[in-house]
Amino acid sequence: MEKTTIKEYKLARGWALFIYLFAPVVIVLFGRLLIIPFQNSDFTPNVNWIFIPLSIAMITFMIFGVIQAYKGRFFIQNDRIKLIGIFSIRELKFDEIKGFTVNEQYIFVEPKNEGKKRIKISKYFNGYSEILLWLSQNFHDLEIQTSIDEEQEILNNKNFGLTREIREEKLLKARQTAKILNWAAGFTMVWALFYPTPYQLLFVTTMSIPIITLVVTKFSGGLLKIDIKKGSAYPTIIYALVFPPLGLLLLAFYKYDIFDYSNIWLPSLLITAVLLFLLLIKQQEITFKKKLDYFNVSFLALFFFGYSYGIVIHINCYYDNSQAEHYTATVLDKRIGSGKSTSYYLKLSTWDKQNEIEELSVGKHLYNRIEVGEELNIYLRNGTLKIPWFIVSDK
């Protein structure tokens, strides 16, 4: 039978226009960030090197986004559905479709045969609601069935308790525990972002949550999961593992100015490796049999590294009893940055070991007290972990 197209869908006009206008701006911005590490003749690894992979990733992402906006199409035909993407064309006949699932960004049409690839439909397609209605009228919503099946699987699994009542109670407690940990993690990140005092209490709280989460997850017997699956009967603790690292990074950047980053990387990588080991040992969720497992581990490794970085900076600076070396620098310029929060910056002249003009983020009170042309005191310290850092003050 000849295939005829009943309906064709493409990216909504507003979103397409937004991508066409926004992508070039982002590409130019990250193109400039990409060259920052190469502007200095000294190629010693420092924090600016983070811009290299970040910029390449963002530029690539934007280019793919523009191509997808122009080329992407979804078709409902007389006997199948078809999706045209950047690198592939995927089709599923109606009798090959097992059902569909929905998350915040996509509809996933799942095949009956594991050898076939699923079709992923963006919510930003024009007529998204119409597509979803058509699928719901013709195929099963797998999330509802999966949730029912998983809950029955838990309640029938004697590894979670001898009786059904015990298993029901354990599942309820696991959901409550996951909710408490995730909400606590989110709270500490907001705390660090908007009002990071008292500092030591905030640091200890933020540092403790991922450790507690890893321990609780190990003792849950498999009831607590890392991966996020909408509609799953298993509670996830992913937010308790990713929010605290963001909070610790905010604290590290807010509280301390690092002079030399050379000795940060090794201890941060070692702590990251230990956390990954604790996460992966004696668990059955991540088996590395699916590509998604590799992505999830890489994703968590990135956040664990941020967590480790924050801990290393804290130990190095907070417990530092070394004798400070005193220098002075002249304020060359000052500016206020606006975003989700207001930031205050001073541009300082070179000072002894710092042979480049540098812009530093400072507190509001210091910013208001100091004027262009005045001198600031620089107190350089060795650091407990031999990571030099400094304090800027007008006193």
Helices and strands in order:
Layout (H helix, E strand, L loop, with lengths): L4 E6 L2 H23 L15 H21 L1 E5 L2 E5 L4 E5 L3 E6 L3 E6 L7 E4 L5 H11 L3 H15 L7 H31 L4 H20 L19 H18 L1 E2 L6 H16 L10 H28 L6 E13 L5 E6 L9 E5 L1 H6 L5 E7 L7 E5 L2
Antiparallel strand pairs: 1-2, 2-3, 3-4, 5-6, 6-7, 8-13, 9-10, 9-12, 10-11, 12-13
Helix pairs in contact: 1-2, 5-6, 5-7, 6-7, 7-9, 8-9
Textual characterization of the structure:
- The protein has helices spanning 13-35, 51-71, 128-138, 142-156, 164-194, 199-218, 238-255, 265-280, 291-318, 364-369, and strands at 5-10, 73-77, 80-84, 89-93, 97-102, 106-111, 119-122, 257-258, 325-337, 343-348, 358-362, 375-381, 389-393.
- The chain is of the alpha+beta class and 395 residues long.
- It has 3 domains: 5-140, PH-domain like; 151-318; 325-393, Nucleic acid-binding proteins (OB fold (Dihydrolipoamide Acetyltransferase, E2P), Beta Barrel).
- A hairpin with a 4-residue loop joins strand 3 and strand 4 (89-93).
- Helix 5 packs parallel to helix 7 (238-255), helix 6 (199-218) runs antiparallel to helix 7 (238-255) and helix 8 (265-280) crosses helix 9.
- The termini are far apart.
- The mean pLDDT is 85.
